[in-house]
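Technical annex B. To support the medicinal chemistry partners, we prepared a structural model of the target in complex with flavin mononucleotide, based solely on the information shown next.
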Amino acid sequence: MIDTDTRALRDAFGRFATGVTVMTTREADGTPRGFTANSFSSVSLDPPLVLVCIGDNAHSGPAFCAAPYFAVNILTAEQEGIARLFASRSEHKFSDADWHEGAHGIPLLPGALATLICAQHQLVKAGDHVILIGEVLETQVTDAPALGYHRGKFITIPS
Ligand SMILES: Cc1cc2nc3c(=O)[nH]c(=O)nc-3n(C[C@H](O)[C@H](O)[C@H](O)COP(=O)(O)O)c2cc1C
């Protein structure tokens, strides 16, 4: 695909307003890993399934594909700084953010709008991404304005 087509595709995809999540997990050696994702979607209620698409260029992709568990941290409007931090290539994401350990040792971000702890259910290779499908084991929610993303900008979605 030539560059102009990629630009047009990004522009079209970007018209779809989304929430913003940070996906978290641990590598086999225990190192916490995480990245910002807006490709999150609910998939099924019975069984309870969700998905996220992980780009081939994400350094933490192999850790997520290998991990038995991961968490979806759905961000509030106040967590834009966290979204920017976890969208970076910083090696200090977890020393620059507050976090605690949840079920199965998965790192969780306090103050998230919702937290979903998931077990890996299926991996599907799709183009230049892997679709990671998780079975939801536990959820936790709060009420606050949500962080959104639209046309390349962070926005606030009122509660
Ligand atoms: C709002 C927003 C949404 C993003 N959504 C995704 C996504 O769904 N999947 C993905 O692979 N990368 C997504 N990214 C890019 C990753 O966050 C970025 O590549 C990050 O550096 C990956 O971290 P890592 O290289 O440490 O794994 C998104 C970035 C932003 C700012």
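Notes passed to the chemistry partners:
The CA atoms of residues 55 and 129 lie 4 Å apart.
The first helix runs from residue 3 to 14.
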